Fold Nucleoside diphosphate kinase.
Amino acid sequence: MEKTFFMIKPDGVQRGLMGQILRRIERRGFRIEQLQMIRPSRELLDSHYQHLRGKVFYPSLLDYMMSGPLLIGILSGSDVIASWRTMMGETNPKDALPGTIRGDFAQAPEANAPMMNCVHGSDSLDSARREIELWFGGATEDSN
Ligand code: DAT
Ligand code: MG
């Protein structure tokens, strides 16, 4: 069964949205294989966001991601990588359609503020494998 890595980001945790977001995952029928609250190191985030290092917004992205705890997890299910991306909606909350998590819950970015979009999901099979290994290491065995 396909697996993906997901997060509820600090804005989602701080605004009390974990329950509503997890409810959507359960309602959609994806299996939650792993779930953990974490305060990641800068090194871990640097590795996670390696494709964005050097972007002008990168320092504020890291500050935002270190501003509070994250909920990280692994989902499994049919086509879960693409389906979870569809459920999340567009990266920028101002473009995210109503009905998506970002479209329903995330707030449009203000000038010079980080883009806070509540959730993360791996964008390909390769990145799902890489991110599951990065965040959960050996802890990905099926727990039933
Ligand atoms: P996604 O989270 O939809 O996979 P991404 O991987 O391109 O998008 O970017 C990772 C995060 O970086 C994204 O959730 C928010 C931030 N980000 C991306 N593009 C940005 C931009 N143009 N300005 C500010 N923040 C941005
Ligand atoms: Mg991404």
Q: What stands out?
A: The chain has a mean pLDDT of 95.
